[in-house]
Design brief:
The protein is an alpha+beta fold and 276 residues long. It has four helices and 13 strands. A hairpin with a 6-residue loop joins β7 and β8.
Length: 276
């Protein structure tokens, strides 16, 4: 065996021995666990809704609970367990003034308490009235209209034909952009009690101003009212909640004809007063 082969064999044996030593050190070495210290965020318990609450729905025991909330993110209007430990008991008889979503913090401005008077009067904006009108499943979009939706009110009635030989059916829009407070349900509060019951009915409760309330009461006796659901996108950036219902021109005031005669329009019925 020449010297070159002996040298190569020696190098190979040395490399194998070194690899064995290194492998033994790695395998025998104990693993070191890295410990990471986590800084905990201070938390407080806040009263939140445990399910979605519709307008007028009573909170009850199952609708609210306490949930941990970052202390730095607690707003002034939130109800905390430290400041109001009896809130679960106090709030269970309250009703939602506005829709509340699951996980949303409960605040007083979105609630109506039993000692604050009737529910409907508590949710009405200043200057507005709640008035009910008769509806049917067909005239209310087959149940797709819900509280807080916006609708147009359409009157359909039978009128004498122009030649007096028969009747003609006429439909016209009485009001546009009307907010629905309740649909197909009746709120009833027993005398001397805080309990409010909700029963199914065939009525829609609309939010109108005093003049519009008078008009809708009179036109309801003249024919059948139907509700046309409006798209929520029509409210624009301001939102549909910031606008008020509008009475159609045919149901307000008076006007003049092309001949100069005065035309009195009362609830959709035109009366011509001529000076000739």
């Amino acid at each position: 065996m020449n010297k070159a082969r002996i040298l190569i064999l020696g190098l190979a044996l040395g490399s194998a021995a070194l690899a064995g030593v290194l492998a033994k050190g790695v395998i025998g070495k104990k693993s070191v666990k890295e410990v990471v210290e986590v800084n905990k965020v201070p938390m407080v318990q806040v009263l939140v809704a445990s399910k979605d609450l519709a307008l007028g729905e009573r909170l009850g025991d199952a609708a609210i609970n306490w949930r941990d909330w970052p202390q730095d993110n607690v707003g002034e209007l939130m109800i905390t367990k430290d400041s109001n430990p009896d809130a679960l008991e106090k709030m269970k008889m309250a009703r939602a003034r506005l829709p509340i979503f699951s996980g949303e913090p409960i605040v007083d401005r979105k609630l109506v308490m039993p000692n604050e008077g009737g529910f409907m009067s508590a949710i009405l904006p200043q200057g507005m009235r709640a008035i009910s009108v008769a509806i049917s499943e067909r005239s209310a979009v087959s149940g797709f209209i819900l509280p807080n939706d916006r609708v147009d009110v359409i009157l359909t009635r039978k009128l004498d034909g122009p030649d007096g030989s028969g009747k003609v059916v006429r439909s016209e829009t009485v009001l546009t952009n009307v907010r629905v407070l309740a649909i197909n349900q009746t709120f009833r509060q027993e005398a001397g009690e805080d309990k409010v019951t909700v029963t199914e009915g065939k009525t829609a409760v609309l939010e109108l101003d005093p003049q519009q309330s008078e008009v809708i009461t009179k036109v309801e006796a003249a024919g059948e009212l139907s509700l046309a659901l409006r798209s929520i996108a029509e409210g624009g950036d301001s939102g549909v909640q910031d606008t008020r219902p509008v009475l159609s021109d045919a149901f307000k005031g008076s006007k003049k004809s092309a001949d100069g005669d005065r035309v009195i329009v009362r609830y959709g019925v035109e009366t011509v007063i001529t000076s000739r």
